[in-house]
Write the structure tokens for this entry.
Amino acid sequence: MAAGEKKFGNALGYQLFYLFIKVGGRRCAYALLNCVCGFYVVFRPQVRRSCESYLSHRFGQAVGFTKLWQQYKLVLSFGRVMVDRAIVATLGAEQIKVALVGREQLLQVRDQGRGVILLLSHVGCWQLAMSAMGALNEPLYMLMHGHASSFESSNYQDAASTTCPYRIINPHGYLGGSLEMLGVLKDRGILSIMGDRVPEQEKNTATVALLGGDVALPISPYHLASATGAPIVVLTSRKIGASTYEMVVADVIEVPVGLGRKAVNFTPYVQRYAATLDGYCQDNPYQFFNFYDMWQ
Amino acid sequence: MAKVEEIKEQLKVILIKDLNLEDITPEEIGDEEPLFGDGLGLDSLDAVEMAVIVQKHFAVEIKDMEEGRPALQSVQALANFIVDKQGKA
């Protein structure tokens, strides 16, 4: 019952935002968002707790109003990304502009014909920024959890003229989708994986430094790269204006072929990715959206 | 038939070595024992590594899930797959 009520509340909330977007556009929806985020941060301790781990690693231990302000800014920033996604679904993709920084480098990597692994993170709005991947002019396969993929699908179903720009591989499928991913790369295709979140029951991780602490990150992207010879392109996205995003080619990682099975062999490459993520958090402190304790 | 038996024995030795399987000998791996889950306990990363192993040692490619899913059920299934592919080459 409680879950049902929660679901109903969420659905009602979404509808309210969709209504505000249709009636008053972005500014109107953002105004509502300010109030909603303020309410959640002040009156919902679990929302504050979900922000704490990242904020304390990024800014150090803050207290009182400073801490509350940081939490509010992080939640608001995430809310704006959600509203922007709803704007695209409601008013069309042309409402958001996405610039691709490093386009030439990305095309050069694609043209090597070894397949490409796009390594993404839960930063900025990767879902919107992925529209910049149209530059690759290739089908894009994405490892994506069921709940995320259904959200994406419903978004694209809502926007009648927009087709989903990627094909989804379910990590809960047979052997975690590993054979499907292998097939994509063997066909010299383009595969997108999140690098900053460890799937449930995943034991294949490497422990690396991030924001002054140790985190366990998945090694599967690097293992796939070593198995197939595909280069890894690290992409970060960030919101740079009211209706503009940037997708940045932050790094290209070449993992040697034949590194084998041991997690420790991949640690230097995972650490290199973590360093990119660390730099991103320094430059964009309120666009890192992992609301759980990665440093456990 | 003799070739399948030979490949099965080779596979068991290679899997133990290349997948760093500890505390297990080739004799302890059953021909029909499931490779993943409750059987030998291999995981998704091992599946990718096995595709690499099969290509490296037997010059046979596991292209995608359609081929990989039946082939990676057991040592017996994998040996049959390798012999079948080598026969067609």
User: Anything to note?
Assistant: Chain B has one domain: 2-88.
